[in-house]
Predict the structure.
Amino acid sequence: MDYEAVIGLEVHVQLQTATKIFCPCPTTFGALANTHTCPVCIGMPGVLPVLNRKVVEFAIKMALAVNCDIAPFNVFARKHYFYPDLPKGYQISQYESPLAEHGWLDIEVDGRTRRIGITRIHMEEDAGKLMHDENRPVSYVDLNRTGVPLIEIVSEPDIRSPEEAVAYLKKLRQLVRYLGISDGNMEEGSMRCDANISLRPSGQKGYGTRSELKNINSFRHVQRALEYEIRRQTALLLDGQDVVQETRLWDAARGVTFPMRGKEEAHDYRYFPDPDLVPVEIDSAWLTRIREELPELPDAKRIRLKRQYGLSDYDLEILTASRSMADYFEGCVAQFPHPKTVSNWICVELVRLLRQGDQEIDTCPVSPAGLAGLLEMIDNGTISGKMAKDILQQMYHTKKSAREIVEEQGLAQMSDESQLRIVIERVMEGHPKEVERYRAGKTKVLGFLVGQVMRETRGQANPKKVNELLEKALNP
Ligand code: ADP
Ligand code: MG
Ligand code: ZN
């Protein structure tokens, strides 16, 4: 029996607003525990939440980016559960009428594009963070995160493999970064993923019973946890057993998932509309304004760059990975209008330097104008392409311009013809046999003689010029 995986993801994204969703506390990460708190976010009685308008705008941006319908009338609901990281005893979320529904996102895996449906996107607040003492039976709670704004993005069960799940998550991360609504950092918890997975006999329409893998915090772990679940569920089904609907956790160290809680403990959240918050109306004027503020998104950018500059898919993948990367490329092309050359230098040399220095393009020490200046010097024959690689490395580490480095180190190519002729004459006198052989028809010797000239000039001769002049001298 052949089984097919059916996967649906629930992704929480922490929004990068300056303040929390219902109070003016800052959202910055890493502050001393419980210093970013106030009576509202620590759940004192008698306080009132006030909705942060920016949260709605950020959530709408995401909803538009994944082609959702936006609900004109939004209600917040209380979701009740009891846990020490939730001081109010309920989380403010959205339930029956989420902000957005019926969207989709295209992903590409192995050169094939697949459309993944987005069921819904809603806004909610984050809970606090518990820390368990390893040595004593004591837990601590940090409420700095309580009330930090989140959106939850729920996908349709349209994903068919762990690779597609990772591609979907990477696309979401790329989108939230393009939109500037989150840093999308999974390791730091700004993007968290619950993965639902079931198997079904290949070709069958209906879905099987799923397990839900909670809070996986890296792409690699999502991939490995889903692969494990496929193996586990396949073994059960082949053995004639049923998959139990349950929540499971991923143990990265052991490489297995294990049950957290079963269906019998399923929560009754007793949702009801939060009476402290007025419904939010999203009118078309507001929507239009937000739509106009949207940046060019990755798919559109890729299509435009391809049309405008005729680059390869491989290059486009790198150049559209982030907005800053694409801006860097276009900034450079604006000053040195040879897109393919610029793209090659960014995708090969610059990306390598960034990777070695563990840097992002945003903090690249070489500016687009700086790279353009270097490429200009190759183009006008001042330096060779080979030297330019070395100079770029120096630019990267010293922040000096190409011109400064070339001048300081006397690296400019010898292009002066009378100077080159003197060297060529000397080389020809020193290698009479080779000259003879060339003249007897063995024109391959030219390469050797060019090499000798390059050596005499310590690589600074302009190779194109040398070829030209040498050929002239050999064929008087
Ligand atoms: P809950 O809120 O209890 O987690 P939902 O109906 O909201 O349940 O579904 C959550 C996620 O589970 C969605 O992403 C959905 O696509 C996915 N899902 C639902 N049924 C299945 C299934 N049989 N196999 C895999 N994923 C599923
Ligand atoms: Mg769920
Ligand atoms: Zn607060």
In short: The pocket of magnesium ion (ligand 2) is lined by residues 10, 194, 212 (CB under 6 Å). DSSP finds 15 helices and 16 strands in the chain. The radius of gyration is 31 Å. The CA atoms of residues 72 and 282 lie 5 Å apart.
